[in-house]
Amino acid sequence: MDAPPLTRRRALALGAAAGLTSLWTRAPAPAWAGRLVRPRGFGLDVAPGAFSGRRTAVLRAPRRFDLLGVRGAAAAGLEVRVRRRGGTWSPWVPLGAGAHHRPDTGSGDHASDPVWTGGSDELQLRAQRAPRTAVRVHFVAVPAAARRAGARATARAARAARARTAQAGPPPIIPRAAWGGDAVVPRAAPEYGDVQVAFVHHTVTANDYAPTDSAAIVLGIAKYHRDTNGWNDIGYNFLVDKYGQIFEGRAGGVDQAIIGAQAQGYNSHSTGISNLGTYSDVAQTDAAINAMAALIAWKLPLHGAPVAGQVVLTSGGGADNRYPSGTPVTLQRISGHRDGDSTECPGNALYAQLPDLRARTLAIAPGVPVVAASIALDPVPTGVVYGEVLPVSGSVHRGDGSPVAGQAVQLQKQGTQGWVTVARAVTDADGGFIAGPVWRAAGRIRARAAVPGAAVVVTAGTQVACLPALEAKARTTRVRAGRSLTVQGSVRPLAPVTVVVERQGSDGRYHRVRALVVRPRAAKFSIDVALRRPGLYRLTPRTGSGTTTARASALYVRAVRPGTSLTPPSPGGTAPGP
Question: Model-level pTM?
Answer without folding.
Answer: 0.63
